[in-house]
């Protein structure tokens, strides 16, 4: 079997880096995309040294309109067909709506919404219809629950949820598999970890390591799972969400909000 | 060269000429596994060593006429200010290097805040150069080839020691950016002739084996780690002070050795052959979860934790090439280093 190629966006740090390593360990060739100056060349050469795979690195700002065709032109020129697309790049926030400026929200919506839609569109255009192609869209449990201080981020992830579910219907007869990854909290930057360590009980149990999320996500994607929710506690929360009546959920969120307002 | 010859050899020119005799050096963590051997090496070279200790009566503190114990704590900047007076060099080896602590903030306090305090005191006192003892744990697990300094970490930071040592390196970078001359050394798993404590994990394994109490090999025994000999690491610290470039990191390692090779060599060195039980990683992981639960419920220290069990799925191979090229770092062959360690622990 010829080696398959996977595109990973936001590959230099956090979950994206874990995807790159997980796929390299599974013998995929990689096309890694990240912002310039984020350490992508170091990661790419490290993976080349340690695995017998081809790694292409593209340093680009995915909020630039030219970056999308640029990526696929690059692949076309090198005669690379991508078999897998991991739409991972995203911009989070944890702030009151009025604390961030318009430029931030524009960037956040571009990166979290426009980028995965357009990359998916261009990926399907070049996909080989004889073999199975895979798309993984990284959503969030935040796309399912209303969480204060995550207003725009949660909304972009709700968009990804709808987009992914709808494409699953449209492409159900084809050889394209699309999965939605809905992780809870992930320990990415160690700076963040100091904060996550302060969490107690239930909130702490929903936080996972990036390498575990990446492994579970790729397993689920290859099995053709429609939605992948890593972690027992997170799956339990989703089930609970389906069972609880609306007023109970409302009460929980309000009490959470009170806690946040106090801190 | 014995220390005695060195001392008598330059006695005639002692006053006013011998640079090393006038140089005052602060060393934090002077009772630690690396720190105590490092203070002895410096004292033998004729330096005046200010050994920072929380307890100057500590049994592991080395008694030597050139080693002056100073009461102090890296968490109390005033004590650092006193201890650092007149010192031109600092070796910051103090750290909390255990697997677990009852107080979860203890790792951050000792390793990050403590490092910041030491560097700030050094900057204030006009110290010329600092060697900071980090760890290969800032990279942790590796893939197929030995890792070098510029290569990335491949997993997250579930282990508090590694996380806080990484954050401490970020502190170091900030001080370097402000012009402080700090060289970072990153030892791998250090072993050798020294006290068997909680942070001396290899020593625990070796002495357990010698007493017939350590009888297991994790997984199939093929997992590879890097083992650094204490005396090599101490020499690496001195060379880093001498030749290290500010803001740089240097891996101070040894040979990459699998568990099977480790216990083979240990068996030969000690002349003791035990039948070893190979325990699958999954069983160790399960046991570690039980230990975690025990600790959660009772507050008793765990023997092993899940984040450490996960490590058994990876190698930890490191290359000391940069230190060899730039510092003249040398690696004692593993079997010789093990022989010395075994001989020491047998009579200890």
Automatic annotation (TrEMBL), chain A:
InterPro entries cross-referenced by the UniProt entry: NAD(P)-bd_dom_sf, Sc_DH/Rdtase_CS, SDR_fam
Keyword terms of this UniProt record: Oxidoreductase
Keyword Membrane: no
GO molecular function, one term: oxidoreductase activity
Pfam families: adh_short (PF00106)
GO annotation, cellular component aspect: membrane
Family designation: Belongs to the short-chain dehydrogenases/reductases (SDR) family.
PANTHER family: DEHYDROGENASE/REDUCTASE SDR FAMILY MEMBER 7B, DEHYDROGENASE_REDUCTASE SDR FAMILY MEMBER 7B
Protein name, entry field: SDR family NAD(P)-dependent oxidoreductase
UniProtKB/TrEMBL annotation, chain B:
Organism: Mucilaginibacter psychrotolerans
SUPFAM superfamilies found in the cross-reference section: NAD(P)-binding Rossmann-fold domains (SSF51735)
Origin superkingdom: Bacteria
Protein name, as recorded: NAD-dependent epimerase/dehydratase family protein
Span of domain NAD-dependent epimerase/dehydratase: 25-253
GO CC field: cytoplasm
Gene Ontology MF: a single term: aldehyde dehydrogenase (NAD+) activity
InterPro entries assigned: Epimerase_deHydtase, NAD(P)-bd_dom_sf, NAD(P)-dependent_oxidoreduct
